[in-house]
Amino acid sequence: MRVAVTAQGADLESAMDPRFGRCRNFVIVDSDSDSDTDKFEAFSNESVTASGGAGTQSAQFLANKGVGAVITGNVGPNAARALEAAGIKVYAAASGTVRDALRAYKAGKLSPISGATVDSHHGMGRR
Prior knowledge:
This protein is α/β, with parallel strands linked by helices and 127 residues long. 23% of the residues lie in helices and 24% in strands. The protein is globular.
């Protein structure tokens, strides 16, 4: 399965970004890989500067990339609905690097999120 991690940078050593819809980047890996040095793709989040709908746009972007799960810190109500509609599972990880989050995911140590964890427009103040 393809897994996306919200990130502040564009590689596995980047710090996680706790925001979903307005994260700086998405790092996507194939979680079925046995390697600890997973091949990955990094994408800038074009929704980061959207005036509205960033969570929904980000969810659609991940769905278009064939992502089945996302690891992030917080998800707003519109993003949660869009992710659920796309069949993308959401897992909580508050800090660490992208690699740390992926290791925790593979080890089954991350908690699934169902629904929103923050109010609408929560991530708009931090850029």
